[in-house]
Amino acid sequence: MTDVDKTVRITDDRTMRRCADSGVGGWALVAVVVAGCGRIGFDDVPASGANPDAPPVHAVPGGTVVSSVGTLANAPGFPTQTHLVYAVGSATWWLFYLDGPATNTIYAAYTTDFVTWTEATSFTAKYPLRGGANFSVASKQIGGLDIVHVALAYTTGSAAAQHNHVRAVLSSGAIAWDAEVDLGCGGATVFADDDGPAVAIDSLDRVFDATSAYADLNCNPVYSGNIDITYSGSSDTGASWSPTWITPNYLQFVSPSGGNDSHWVAPLDNGTVLTVQSDGLTHDASGNLDNLLWASTNQTTTSAVDQVAATAFSTAVDANQWTAVCVSTTNCLVVVRTGAASFASFAFDGSAWSTAAAIPAQTTSTTSGPFLATDGTSVWLFVIDSSVSSTIHYTTLSSAGWAAWAAFESGTQTRSYLAGYNMVADGVISLMWVQANGTNYDLVVEPFLVEGG
Length: 453
What we know:
With 453 residues, this protein is mainly β. It contains 1 helix and 35 strands. The longest helix has 4 residues, at 3-6. It starts with a helix and ends with a strand.
């Protein structure tokens, strides 16, 4: 990859906009995507907060191609993972990505306007990462510093499965990586699948990783492939962190030969986290599954492991066909793509799951990756249409239920693997996907501007 590939500066007439107020949908938008005009943000918006039914505003129509990623179709990872984060201290968006399959290098690029992306110091992993679904990032401002934690799963098919972790500190235009930590030894089990690890920082600033690539420190291969959650033995203070880890809680013992996995972790109250993941006993060798498992843990106590859906999904889904978000610590949502135009949704109230509000029918691609985001009140669901134009559609959930679907990005491209940052930050839901470029793929990021967000 050349330096030109890694620092993108859009200069067409799409970005030739003035740094001045312009009325959009009845409210004023300032400094929309002009390189050199500073951040994307809102001014003079209603004090009442976000309006989920407001028309979408295209800050960067079509999005910005940040990098070519070669033949790596799943560069954005799964919708349950995070490769995009927002650094509060510097008001900067950061993207972490691979530029091809089976590479040791995680690139880091940052932006304040979603137009110009500048590469920062990359991270060289100990082993090759099979694809974008084999790492995930969590971020939090701790002690006045923007901290990121990265869960790594090595499943290249040429080495035993291995779960590692790395931490970094973000500052204005720079990233400082800590040393990579081995969380277990690879044992004797070889994978050739995506693990879909997840990572979260809890309310006490401890770190939780969810993975299927962990083998215990005694190199016992029977533990490699099981569903587990691993947690740090100390809190991150921002200024420092001791990378000691507690023996993981094994949530499910699974034959290590079975297909792609996917995991999701979210912090709740009082140092408790909620974890949802593939039900390893119900998926086939291709990773298709007919239910999800969940549990909660605070390191000391772990709840009984149970299935999210009371009955199996009507159609088996793969690891890229479900998504989750927590609106609050007692209001979390899982959405599963169950068919060409159908969905199932489930709500968590802090102690149990139940069937949630029905989602209107909308045709979607099998690799669309439904993606959820929230501002702490409303919820947005994004999908990629199965039409030739691969239109990105969205709907919003409010107290009245799900709204009718609307088009957000309709420029003709062949898009797949939709993901992003699942919290509104600086008035933006940051979306990412790949789109075909000949026989290769481009990694694209586009902000969805939220009124009052």
